[in-house]
Design a protein that fits this description.
Length: 128
């Protein structure tokens, strides 16, 4: 990878959180939507995400921050649906990663999968 490219794959900790969310959803039968499950699968497999997917992650976390105040949030024995959903999107580490990546990708258009998920810095716009 050259200096002017960025890797659009999430860190392993984010992938692990997504995998945990999928396990909890299966075990408890709650938490998340089909979209959340699809995102968790992408994260778990560390697939390259598009800039628009990263922006959607940031939007999800902004809308669902309130879920962290719900009953049984973080309870591993009886987790809330909100906790499971949060994990499907990568958990706190996913939120931090998505926010950092959004700073890098800004409003950049999605790129072709043929590029392997690496994007040239030249195609990204910086919000100054």
């Amino acid at each position: 990878m050259s200096e002017d490219e960025i890797d659009l794959r999430c860190p392993q900790t984010v992938a692990d959180n997504a995998a945990k969310g999928l396990r909890l959803r299966k075990q408890f039968g709650r938490g998340g939507t089909d979209i959340g499950v699809a995102r968790a699968t992408e994260l778990k497999e560390r697939r390259n995400l598009s800039p628009s997917a990263i922006r959607r992650m940031v939007s999800y976390f902004a809308r669902h921050e309130v879920d962290k105040r719900g009953k049984n949030y973080g309870n591993e024995e009886n987790p809330s649906a909100g906790y499971i959903a949060w994990l499907l999107w990568g958990g706190d580490e996913g939120r931090a990663w998505a926010l950092e990546m959004k700073k890098k990708v800004g409003n950049a258009p999605d790129i072709s999968a043929a590029s392997g998920g690496l994007a040239s810095w030249n195609c990204f716009t910086k919000n100054l």
